[in-house]
């Protein structure tokens, strides 16, 4: 079982940057693919980005490509989401997620997630 704790959310102006962190604990962490999702009130939780165990295979949803970067530090058991050029439409609660390792990076659905973090609010003002 994996446990996830996010940090790093906050309020930022449009065009600004934030870095989210996700600290993982538990067994066999390297067997998991890690990812980030986000959710706004009244909408389904949506996939943002994923990274495999080596950190070399990444996948992003189209709306964040070129602006967000996902990374992981296996020595620190952490996953990060660097968010640049933030837009008001990026405002959401961001969740760290873990699922059994994917053979190839792709979009996941929320139903595929094994473990969620508690979420961290990101608010981008215009």
Please tell me what the overall shape is: globular
Helix content: under 10%
N-to-C SSE string, H for helix and E for strand:
EEEEEEEEEEE
Portion in beta strands: over 45%
Number of strands: 11
Low-confidence stretches: none
Separation, N- and C-terminal Cα atoms: 40 Å
**Global mean pLDDT:** 94
Number of helices: 0
Main beta-sheet annotation:
7 strands, mixed
Give the C-alpha Rg: 13 Å
Instruction: Classify the secondary structure makeup into a structural class.
Output: mainly beta
Outline the structure in words:
With 126 residues, the protein is mainly beta. It is built from no helices and eleven strands. It has strands at residues 2-7, 10-13, 18-26, 32-39, 46-51, 58-60, 68-73, 78-83, 92-100, 115-116, 120-125. The strands form two sheets. Strands 2, 4, 5, 6, 9, 10 and 11 form a seven-stranded mixed sheet that branches. A hairpin with a 6-residue loop joins strand 4 and strand 5 (46-51). The protein is globular and about 40 Å long. The N and C termini lie far apart (40 Å). The relative contact order is 0.32.
């Amino acid at each position: 079982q994996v446990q996830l704790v996010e940090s790093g959310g906050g309020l930022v102006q449009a065009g600004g940057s934030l870095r989210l962190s996700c600290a993982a604990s538990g067994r066999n962490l390297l067997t998991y693919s890690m990812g980030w999702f986000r959710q706004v009130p009244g909408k389904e939780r949506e996939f943002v980005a994923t990274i495999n165990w080596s950190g070399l295979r990444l996948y992003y949803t189209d709306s964040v490509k070129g602006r967000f970067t996902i990374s992981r530090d296996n020595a620190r058991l952490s996953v990060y989401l660097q968010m640049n050029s933030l837009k008001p439409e990026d405002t959401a609660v961001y969740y760290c997620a873990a699922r059994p390792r994917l053979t190839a990076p792709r979009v996941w659905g929320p139903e595929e997630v094994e473990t969620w973090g508690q979420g961290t609010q990101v608010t981008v003002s215009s």
